[in-house]
Structure formats: structure tokens, C-alpha cells
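Morning F.,

Quick status update on the modeling queue. The single chain you submitted on Monday has been processed. Sequence for confirmation:
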Amino acid sequence: MKKGVRIVNVARGGVIDEEALVRALDSGIVAQAALDVFTKEPPSPESKLVQHENVIVTPHLGASTVEAQVCFTNHHNSKLFIVSCSFLHLIPIFG
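C-alpha cells below.
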């Protein structure tokens, strides 16, 4: 991959080899990483990845936004509406 890439993983822990990511960050191949998921959750606070100066970590908050909760709630509680998550508008479905 191109030197200086930025990696974001909010999908699944284990998708990224965390030890390899630390090596890539240390060597400059990866400029920065943002991670919301880890192979082992929660990650150790002493983890080289968690402590790395070029890594931003969040505690698996991907579905903890207002938008995600509204979308989830409306999706599971009503078959009469589609939720436009980007704008939080309810679009009625007829039929």
C-alpha cells in the first residue's frame, strides 16, 4: 500500500493484524489509525496499539450515536417507516 495511509476499523476486531499495524505505524507505512474495535475487547490500556501516538481509539461506540440508536429503534419497532439515518427523517411507506 502507499506509504502514509490512514486506516480506520469500525467493522470487526481481528480484521486487522494489530501487531502488524503497530509495526507499520512505527515504520511510517501507516501514518495514523483510528480503531473502534479490537481483537480482544476491551483492549489492555498498556497495549502498544492503544498507547501509540498516531492511533485514536474509541471504546466500541459505533452504534452508540443518537443517529444509530434512532435508526435501530425505528427499524425494529415499526414496519411503517424507513429511517433516513443521515438526516433523521421518517419516510412513510404505503403498501
